[in-house]
Design goal:
With 278 residues, the protein is α+β, with helices and mostly antiparallel strands. Helix content is 26%, strand content 26%. α4 runs antiparallel to α6.
Length: 278
């Protein structure tokens, strides 16, 4: 099992001294005050990575501890769902991936853990009320503020690890990026004052740690997550399948189920349940 070893651990002091990692986003004083049970006890921080997901995947294969956070000030080849590019301007966003070893029965709720932790973090950091757009976007005032990416890795039918990726827009000029300028926003823009990733990151790590702990303790994460989802009760279009063979279903979002799937009522009255899509 990949989880059996932990070949590398950084204490807060070691993290600060490492020449491979930058220290301006997460001061030692902040690290010492995290007091998390699991997520954030081991943080690997890089000035630039092609992808935190790819790095976390390799580290999991090498036996990295559960709860390890791979954090980058900049991603040069970050991906969202379905292979879309994720924009991570240097020091203007939070880009991280967390290595977890959940039970297979918990997999459907890991996306919910990440979404719930993200909206709770934003609310505590800004006082604003974000919502979750099924299945993995977080919106603030109708614009995308964060995205969640899940990767579950199996070998011979056995779950080996789950990687949870979160990208959160904190403080950069979205108008500089034509691809997202019409649909995205940042915490600083919506709050009306400057925030730094270093101010927000400890909150996000604490929320992730607490929500994952709640899941492990048997809490009903699904019910809590559902109260923050804005998709229910709307007529929506859901794209599913893989490009170029995408299919699009349109209907009234009648329910979102405990396994994370969504049930739409089509215009002819028939129902269709979609496991994953956007």
């Amino acid at each position: 099992m990949w989880r059996q070893g932990c070949w590398r651990h950084y204490s807060p002091e070691q993290l600060q001294k490492s020449t491979k990692m930058r220290t301006n986003i997460l001061p030692a004083s902040t690290l010492k005050g995290l007091n998390t049970r699991l997520i954030g006890r081991n943080i690997l921080y890089y000035p630039s990575l092609p992808s935190t997901m790819a790095t976390a995947r390799k580290m999991a294969r090498d036996g990295m501890c559960e709860g390890t956070v791979v954090l980058a000030a900049e991603q040069t080849a970050g991906k969202g769902r379905r292979g879309r590019k994720w924009f991570s301007p240097p020091e203007g966003s939070i880009s991280l991936s967390v290595i977890l070893y959940p039970s297979p029965s918990q997999l459907p709720q890991l996306n919910m853990v990440a979404g719930l932790a993200t909206v709770n973090c934003i609310e505590k950091a800004t006082g604003l009320r974000p919502v979750i757009k099924w299945p993995n976007d977080v919106l603030l005032n109708g614009r995308k503020i964060a995205g969640i990416l899940m990767e579950n890795i199996f070998e011979a039918g056995e779950l080996m690890t789950a990687i949870v990726g979160i990208g959160l827009n904190v403080s950069f000029d979205v108008s500089s990026f034509a691809e997202i300028s019409a649909i995205a926003t940042t915490l600083s823009t919506e709050l009306g004052r400057e925030l730094s990733p270093g101010e927000v990151l400890p909150l996000l790590l604490r929320e992730l740690d607490q929500t994952y702990h709640d899941l492990q303790s048997g809490a009903n994460i699904y019910e809590r997550w559902l109260t923050r989802v804005e998709t229910l009760g709307k007529v929506v279009q859901v794209k599913s399948g893989g490009s170029p063979g995408d299919s699009v279903e349109e209907g009234y979002a009648e329910s979102i189920n405990a396994d994370g799937s969504i049930t739409l009522r089509r215009s002819d009255g028939s129902l269709v349940t979609i496991v994953t899509g956007e």
